[in-house]
Amino acid sequence: MKKNRNVGIIGVGQSVYSSHREEVNQPEMIHEAVAEALAHAGMTIDDIDCIVHGNMELFEMVHQPDCWHSLGIGSVGKETLRVTTGGTTGATICATADYLVASGLHDVVLAVGFEKLQEGHTTGGITNMADPLWARQLQTGALTGMTAAAVIEEFGEERAKKASMKYRIIMDKHAMKNKKAHRRLGLEFDQADDLMVNSPALVGELRMIHMCSQSDGACAVIFASEEKAKQFRKNPAWIKDHITVHREESFGCFGDEPFVLSHRYAAEKLFARNGIKNPRKEIDMFEMYDPSSWWGLDWLREFLLFDGDEHLKMVENDEITIDGDFPINPSGGVTASNPIGATALVRVAEAALQIMGEAGEHQVPKTVNQALASGFGGTLWTVLFLLTREAP
Amino acid sequence: MARRVGICAVAQTTYERDKWNQRFQGMALDVLEALRQQVDIKFSRHRPEVQGIDMTISVSDDIFDARTISNNAMTDVLGAHFGCEEKVAQEGIQALYYGLAAIQSGHNDMVLIMGHCKESQCASRNMVTHVAFDPFFTRPVGLDFCAAAGLQAQAYAAKSGITDAQLAKIVARCRKHAAQNPYTPGLEELTAEAVMASDMLADPIRALHARPVSDGAVGMVLAAEEIAVKICDKPIWITGVGNSMDHFFLGDRDLASNRALKEAAQRTYKRAGITDPKTAFDIIEISDQYAYQLPMWMEGLGMVDEGKAGQWIDDNGPDKLHVNMSGGMLAGNPLILGGLVRAAEAALQLRGEAGNNQVKNAKTALAHGVMGPAGQFHSVITLERN
Amino acid sequence: MNTAKDDCFVVKGKLALPYQYFAGKTGSRFIISLRDEHKIRGLKCEKCGKVFVPPRSTCDICFENIADKWVDVANTGTVTGFTIIRYEEPHQPVKPPYVLGLVKLDGADTPIAHIVKGVALSKMAVGLKVKAVFAKKTTNSIMDIDHFQVVGDKPKFELGYSYEELEVGMSASFTKTISETDVYLFAGISGDFNPMHLNEEFAKLTPFGTRIAHGALPQSLIAPVLGMKLPGLGTVIPEITVKFRKPTYFGDTITAVGEVVEKIEKKKWVRMELRWTNQKDELVAEGSCLAIPPAAFLKK
């Protein structure tokens, strides 16, 4: 890849994430994030050249929502682009902003992701994803107990259940450090056994406590060309590279071909072209789109290209905690806050804050030179971002 | 200066009232097959050893498709097996804006664009655009894009003095060209008198001033210059892009001012290095969802002096400037595809493949798309061939 | 229909998901004022000076926070644009055809879209004055304004001359023949059954030698002059004095005349001279009055 020019992240803003934000309407909630991002970057809306907007219409049933949201975003008189790709949307609009700046079309681009899930019916919305002819009667929202079953099958019930619950509690401990996070439950490790039994079961061993939240919230991130970035901030987080790997709707259409998760495919390609041989060692932290702690646990193996039980060991040995060797989701991740259209953008934003060293109470206690952020959505789609402290 | 980007293949389905015998995936597949007839399409899937499509940009609308994340349904058709597929959910012409940026960034070399929409799938497209309005202050009064267009048409008619007869003439001309366009079958020619005798829809918009409901799909292949020249004989270069957003509430705007379009056009001209838009283009394809928009947008693009569009219609200005030789959006394109189809039709003209509507030696073109209530958002793109 | 449809299914579906939209604090405050006080409020951006309706918490011109910069705007306004909706959709609040207007409320800078009623569709025009008509039942939405009603250019009553319009020397009159019936009715109205008005035999004994009308009867003929002509409708008469000079006999035709003789600037009142004459031009009565003309503001 021969990138036209470097792009850095220079401003991050987030609304408070909550189960409902009735005190603000959609544009007002987005405005909170935009205003904070502008303040963080030390700029005004006049410095923004173009705005990228993303969410999913059916979650709020607003057609072409960027039109209405112009009231809060500040897009009047500006160039705009609206891109959506399901759960990956937030990361996709980062890619979009990156392209728009790297191409030279714009110097400063604002990416805005949001969702107000309380205004709609999320499970109904997700069910509407499925093909009306072939699959809609079978769709059950985003619940997938299959991963839990597979992990249990491979590593035994006790070890698997313990690891996924530990992962969950670590995430909650991280969320407790992040005032903006939606679910901050104050879980302790000694509650694990109780939760494994008493949290309501959804599908098999996938329990309520494992699942992501359903949140209202918005996130805004400002991307700038190298020249502009250095003008506004001495510590931008640079976009080293990113990759988007989607899969088809009909998983079975390739017959008996072994099933490769898009996460693994994306990680393999991204690491290969950036000369990363040992991601576990070369990457300093990871903001992962983990819709449930079973997936977070399982996907760690895919992203870090493990084949054995290294990912379980990482959890068991406290390596993924905020002060561990390979911190995952110091923000609390998706099990804590999940405003879907913003969720993947929050991953990139939080990774950028860690590189800048400006994540506040949930800043990891080490220098982050290289960070990974992932987006997940659609029919097992992946967007993976590699951010660095040094300009590429 | 970033590298040049060319349109290497263009294909579309016909646009018809109700393609009841085809799902939208089927329409897209037809277009993909047609594109493959023009260029060899492989999907690179992030394998550096394979030169092919690095990124697919789909264009669809969840509400028209009645599917959350409607591009889910497109991944099978668009070769998204480990590939990159992203959806532009705005006016389709923005897929070109995005594709241009994606290639110029250096991150991608070849981009496949595929837009689809079946307006016939919903009980009424006004019901879809109704929910574009905020739920508190504008939805309850029953606004939709047609009502908003009525308000704008009244404002524009009051400002410009455009007459019912002039609007009728625009529709009659559109039908004449549409009858020659194989992609808009089933549209009868109409006399201006017949147009003037049609019922009012939202005064001063008559029923025949509105584009018919249609289903269809359109696709393109974009490539960086070094590839474009290798894979096709007649790449059409994107020379300029620009867009702009106006205020949301209709009362916050001067509806007859063309604010967003003027900004979009000026940005495009600046990037394309165009100083005199009146003489810069051999082909102009603009998104006229309603008849009044053709003269109004032409004023906004700076092609016709403000307030002079009525006279310009009387003087057969659209023929002289080769505006909407395809029939335009008035001949029927789904809401979100209008601008992308305009770019496709402009590219066909520049390739000399516009059939009976072909303008001889067309070298430069402008295409335009519009979205939102009463033209809140406009996007402009300029094209040229070698 | 094409028979080929038999082998191409069309699957019916409906997007029937529940939605609830949060209006937010700012939007809610607007609706509460509308609902509880029938008051329309706008938000003012102190940077650009514009007063916005509908409400929004950010001025999207200046990007300033204006969430608490409330100002009252009038319930009246002017139509700045309109269309006539003729097509029917389930989301419309009223049955077509109806007028959808852009109404700029007095005191606001941005018009709002709403239903306009009270004018023939063919007479609908930009510039018409309208007034908000509030809904009988609240819906907690902008539809708490049921619609905007067109108010006519002319007031319903043609009010008389205002103080500013009155000039010294202006005069007006009213003439009527006084009949036997008038006198008998007046006796009934006033209770004054004095035989000098009603009994010819008794009247022969009086200095007049025949029945005469009640003195107040011809005097009352000045009322239509003052109240309906000069100054005219809307006038109030706080004082009137009369001296009777001659009797009025049955069949006499009396003319009452009022003339403006003085404008009393301090009070914005006028003093008028009053004269009553009969068909022989004889002075029947004379006097004067103070008149409070209709206020200028009532005529707007």
Lay out the secondary structure.
The complex is a heterotrimer of chains A (392), B (386) and C (300).
Chain A: E1 7-14, H1 26-41, E2 50-54, H2 57-60, H3 65-73, E3 79-84, H4 89-102, E4 108-116, H5 122-127, H6 146-155, H7 157-176, H8 192-198, E5 201-203, E6 206-207, E7 216-225, H9 226-232, E8 237-245, H10 262-273, H11 279-282, E9 285-287, H12 293-303, H13 310-316, H14 333-336, H15 340-356, E10 370-377, E11 381-388
Parallel strand pairs in A: 2-3, 2-4, 9-10
Antiparallel strand pairs in A: 1-7, 1-8, 4-7, 5-6, 8-11, 10-11
Helix pairs in contact in A: 1-3, 4-15, 6-7, 7-8, 7-12, 10-12, 12-13
Chain B: E1 5-12, H1 24-38, E2 55-59, H2 62-65, E3 84-88, H3 94-104, E4 110-118, H4 125-130, H5 145-160, H6 164-178, H7 192-196, E5 200-202, E6 205-206, E7 215-224, H8 225-231, E8 236-245, H9 259-272, H10 277-280, E9 283-285, H11 293-300, H12 309-314, H13 317-320, H14 338-350, E10 364-371, E11 377-385
Chain C: H1 24-37, E1 40-44, E2 51-52, E3 58-59, E4 64-65, E5 70-73, E6 76-85, E7 98-105, E8 112-117, E9 129-134, E10 145-151, E11 171-177, H2 180-190, H3 195-198, H4 200-203, H5 216-219, H6 222-228, E12 236-244, E13 253-264, E14 269-277, E15 283-292
**How would you classify the helix and strand content of chain C by structural class?**
alpha+beta
How many extended strands of chain B?
A: 11
**What ranges of chain C have pLDDT less than 50 throughout 5 or more consecutive residues?**
none
Query: How would the global form of chain B be characterised?
Result: globular
Q: Tell me the CATH superfamily of the largest domain in chain C.
A: Hotdog Thioesterase
Radius of gyration of chain C: 33 Å
How many domains of chain C? 2
Chain pair with largest interface: A-B, 68 and 69 residues
Fourth-tier CATH superfamily name of the domain at 5-123 and 213-231 in chain B = Thiolase/Chalcone synthase
CATH-assigned fold name of the domain at 5-123 and 213-231 in chain B:
Peroxisomal Thiolase, Chain A, domain 1
* Largest sheet, strands/sense/barrel of chain B: 9 strands, mixed
**Strand order within the widest beta sheet of chain B:** 3-2-4-7-1-8-11-10-9
Low-confidence parts of chain B? none
CATH class of the domain at 5-123 and 213-231 in chain B: Alpha Beta
Alpha carbon gap, first and last residue of chain C? 63 Å
Q: Assign an overall shape of chain C.
A: elongated
Sequence of strands across the biggest β-sheet of chain C: 6-7-8-10-9
> Pairing-aware structural class of the strands and helices of chain B?
alpha/beta
- In which range does the helix fraction of chain B lie? 25-40%
Share of residues in helices of chain C:
10-25%
What's the total count of β strands of chain C?
A: 15
